[in-house]
Structure formats: structure tokens, C-alpha cells
Amino acid sequence: MTITALREKGPLIHNLTNEVVSNFTANGLYAIGASPVMSKAPEEAADMAGISDGVLINIGTLTASDVEAMHLAGRRANENGIPVVLDPVGVAATAYRKETCRDLLQAISFTAIRGNAGEIATLIDRPWEARGVDSSDDGDVVELAEAAAIKLGTLIILTGKKDVVTDGTRTYTCENGTPMLTKVTGTGCLLSSVVTAFLTLDGDRVDNAVSAVSTYGVASELAVDDAAGPGTFHPRFLDTLSTVTLEAVQQHAVVKEVVHND
Ligand SMILES: Nc1ncnc2c1ncn2[C@@H]1O[C@H](COP(=O)(O)OP(=O)(O)O)[C@@H](O)[C@H]1O
Ligand SMILES: Cc1ncsc1CCOP(=O)(O)O
Ligand SMILES: [Mg+2]
Description:
Layout: H1 3-9, E1 12-16, H2 22-32, E2 35-38, H3 42-50, E3 54-58, H4 64-80, E4 84-87, H5 95-107, E5 112-116, H6 117-123, E6 130-131, E7 134-135, H7 141-152, E8 155-159, E9 163-166, E10 171-174, H8 187-199, H9 205-224, H10 230-243, H11 246-252, E11 255-257
Parallel strand pairs: 1-2, 1-3, 3-4, 4-5, 5-8
Antiparallel strand pairs: 6-7, 8-9, 9-10, 10-11
Helix pairs in contact: 2-8, 2-10, 3-4, 6-7, 8-9, 9-10, 9-11
Bound molecules: adenosine-5'-diphosphate (ADP), 4-methyl-5-hydroxyethylthiazole phosphate and magnesium ion.
């Protein structure tokens, strides 16, 4: 399904996200046509997930209380059959992040995981160059994403210069976007919430994730054209998320299916 269906549905996304990107994520979800609610209190996590169409779990600035809320919201999402997406921000950086992701992956059936290459590699114990919340783009990202999808049994959206969407069987690459996205904090985190919103739509989840990634990438290309730098790119990107059309996505999307000859 497409940006048009997303705007028609306007799904409510419960975000258990980090303090750096919370406001940007809420505004970005509004811009693209979804509704955000940000909440990390364990006392209401299950109830909030229960009234939502999708749940996003982002480990960017973790506390023990957040982790408790993430388990409660994720379990309720599974019980209610709504999508739940993990963004393993900076998981390579500390043992606490690794243990938290391991526990979340054991307890919750994630619909998808969206992360950069370093984060996806860490989840399957592969070495990859990463620093804090950032990752190198060097290496075979298609092979990495497919290995992660198979090992973790979920949809993987691996992003960077080239984005990869795979369920381990069907794989697509998307080469839209702009390096300016790496100069503004929270663009990966917002994409994870946007992916969650697209996964609430009817239809195939691989196709829906490809729509999310390509719509986001095309919107960023339209925004960067008249941006002087990261400061002006930021509001322009929110604007183009709200104005990008299905026609523009279809015209500019650089999406390819990966065909294996083995
Ligand atoms: N070098 C690049 N060129 C174009 N787009 C990029 C580049 N690096 C990242 N992106 C885009 O930035 C967005 C966030 O991805 P990424 O930077 O991998 O996430 P994170 O911020 O979690 O590390 C995605 O839409 C991705 O396609
Ligand atoms: C800088 C930073 N530190 C902890 S969370 C965070 C935001 C990361 O955002 P993104 O993964 O979208 O770059
Ligand atoms: Mg990130």
C-alpha cells in the first residue's frame, strides 16, 4: 500500500522512543499523515498500545523504567495483532543495549526491525564498523540484511546510502535519499516510526515497507534541493513529507528487486 492509503487511514502510532528525537518524530508522523502518541510510563504502556494501530520501540536513551514499558507495550501489541517495530539505536555501543535488545527479541514477536548496518550486524553477532548511533556503509548490506531476516525471523529494513528491505525470501533495495539525512539527528528514528505507520496498512508487509522507505527517500530529495544546510533542511523535510505525492514517489523511486541466481 502507498502514501495515499496511509493518509486515508491516519494510523495512531504509540512511540516508546528516545528523548533526542521525540518531538521530531511526532511532527514527522503528523506531516506524513499519521498520528503520534509518545508515552513510556510502565503504568500505561499496555493500555496505550491497546488503543493504537502500531507500536514503535526505540532504545536510543534507555532507562530501566523504559525497558519495562517496552515489554508491556510490545506484549500488548502481539496480543492485539498490531505491528510492533524495533529500532535498536546504538546497540553496538554498550552491553546494556545489547542485553536489552536480546531480551526484547526473546519476549516480543517483532513485525520488523529498522536500523543501520552496524545495528543490524550487532543483533546477529556480526562485526561491523560503528560509532555511537552511527554506522559505516561499507560492506555487503544485502547479504547482511538477508542473514538477519533469516536468523531473527522478521522483516529487516537496513538503511544507509543504500536501503535494503527483506523478509529473508524477497529482497528489495532502495537508493533514494540524501547524505543530508545523516546531518540531522533523528532521521533514522523517524523512519522507523514511518515504517510502523505503513505496516498498519493492508497488504504485503515487504511492499508496505518498500513504500515507506521510498516515500521517505523521495521526500528528502525534494527537501534538499533548496536547503542551505542541516538547519533549513529540517523544516523543509517536514514540509515535503506532508506534500510528497504518490506520482512523485512513482517517478523518482529507485527500487530494485534483488534476484539471486542460486
Ligand atoms: N549516504 C546516504 N545517502 C543517501 N541517504 C542516506 C545516506 N545515509 C543514510 N541515508 C538515509 O537516511 C535515512 C536514515 O538512515 P540511517 O542514517 O541509516 O539511519 P540512522 O540515523 O538510524 O543511522 C534513511 O532514509 C537512509 O536511506
Ligand atoms: C544522537 C542520539 N543519541 C541517543 S539517541 C540519538 C538519536 C539517534 O537518531 P538516529 O538514529 O535517527 O540518527
Ligand atoms: Mg538510528
